[in-house]
Design goal:
about 100 residues; mainly alpha
Length: about 100
């Protein structure tokens, strides 16, 4: 009968990872992915914003957006700040009727 020859070969990182994964019991699995930080009481459009702000999406002409970005860059402001100033100036003297449905 032949003698079994044992050679001590160093394991690669991948081999160690596979060995570790196969040794971990199934009930000890850690949650995968990024931890949830979502507060269910706050709508996602308002999450992480000051009280009187919200996120909104609008369709806008490319030429207006380019000009808005150029003004922001020239004035060393953010697009958000320039748009807020422009809307405040436009709406300053407006007195529109209130909508019945605020979801529009």
């Amino acid at each position: 009968m032949a003698k079994e020859l044992k050679i001590n070969v160093p394991q690669t990182a991948a081999q160690k990872a596979v060995q570790t994964m196969t040794q971990t019991p199934a009930n000890d699995k850690k949650p995968v992915g990024r931890p949830r930080k979502h507060d269910t009481n706050v709508p996602s459009a308002k999450e992480g914003l000051p009280a009187d702000w919200t996120r909104a999406s609008f369709l806008v002409r490319e030429s207006y957006l380019d000009k808005l970005k150029d003004v922001a860059w020239t004035d060393r402001k953010t697009v958000k700040t320039v748009l807020d100033e422009a809307l405040a100036l436009y709406l300053k003297d407006k007195h529109p009727q209130k909508r019945k449905d605020n979801n529009v």
